[in-house]
Structures are given as C-alpha cells and as structure tokens.
Amino acid sequence: MHTSKHWYAVYTRPRWEKKIVAQFQLRQIEHYCPLQKTRRQWSDRMKIVEEPLFRSYVFVRICLLQEQTAVRMVPGVINFVYWNGKPAVVRDEEILTIKRFLRDYTEVRAYPLQPGQKVRIIDGVMMDQEGVVEKVQGRKVYVVLDSIGYALVAEFNQSSLEPVDEK
Q1: Residue 36 sits in a domain of what CATH number?
Q2: CA distance 43 to 57
Q3: Would the keyword Transmembrane be found if you checked this record's keyword annotation (predicted)?
Q4: Taking every pair of C-alpha atoms in the chain, what is the biggest distance, in angstroms?
C-alpha cells in the first residue's frame, strides 16, 4: 500500500476556511491555510484582520488512499481540486514558495491564472523559480503557481527576470 504524503488543494464553502482549519486540527489532519493581514473598515474603527490568501481553498498534506475520506467528511469541504481526473498534487516547493511570499512581502494578493510568458527569477527569495508572468507593470510581476491555478503578486526589479526558452 502506498503511504507517502503529498499536498492537495481542497475546495471549501465560501468563507469556511478557518472553520475547516479548526476541524483539521481536531482531527489531526496536516493542513495549511495561507493567511494575509489586511485592513478592514468598520463603521466605528479600522481593524487589521487575517483573511485567506486563496478564498475557498485550504491545502492538506495527506496519504490520499488513507485520509481522503476523512478530509471529505469535514463539514464545509466541497471536494478536492482535480487535474486529469485525479486530485491535483501540489508540490512541496509551491507550498514553500507561498510561505516565503507571505513571510517576505507585505502586499501579496491572489489572482486567477491567465496564460502568459514563461520566466525564471534570477535573484532574491524566488531565485531559480520558474513561472508564467502575465505582465510586468513597473516593479510588479505576476508569478503563477501552475498546480493551484493562482498567481501571487510581488514586486521584483525587471532585471530579476529572464525568459525561459521554450524548445
């Protein structure tokens, strides 16, 4: 029986990410829900709150054969994200990249995946990462993580990017 653990993206009910994380903790299911601090205006005050970077998504690190049903049984979990008829594996490097982004950049936002040019980042925390860049505007660059279908936005000097030759 195959028992290695991999990261998977789980699609959730809208605004249930934190409730699902609490359930994963109770059930001892390894998970990651990237949160970002953002300012919200109430009628009487401004408040900083933590919101999910990827709305309606939580990542789980599980042995699919042994724990898939347990994940699906958590209230609020709709389904795994599928690719080619199977739950899509999210590479460890992509989870680490998200963690680095959130640690090193204060303004990180997620955007739906769009087609674009392949690039390699040649310096900084993202060094040697390849991704698809939709556009470069000033210092802002859209770096795409393929398996989850989202782009993380960070500021890079244009000189920090080089095109990847597609052969």
Answers
A1: 3.30.70.940
A2: 29
A3: no
A4: 58
CA distance 143 to 156: 10
CA quadruple 140, 146, 149, 151: dihedral, nearest 10: -10
> Tokens 């300012």, residue?
39
Residue with tokens 């899509």: 88
Domain boundary among 90, 122, 148: 90
- Rounded to the nearest 5 degrees, what angle is found at the Cα of 59, between the Cα atoms of 34 and 19? 75
At position 166, the amino acid (one-letter code) is E
Domain assignment of residue 43, given as a range? 6-90
Domain count, the chain: 2
Note the pTM of the prediction, 2 decimals.
0.68
Q: Please indicate, yes or no, whether residues 54 and 13 belong to a single structural domain of this protein.
A: yes
Rounded-to-integer distance, Cα 24 and Cα 70, Å: 9
Distance CA 119, CA 128 (A): 10
Mind listing the pLDDT tens digit for each residue in 33-89? Answer: 999 887 788 888 888 888 898 889 999 999 999 999 999 999 999 999 998 899 999
Question: How far apart are the C-alpha atoms of 144 and 151, rounded to whole Å?
Answer: 4
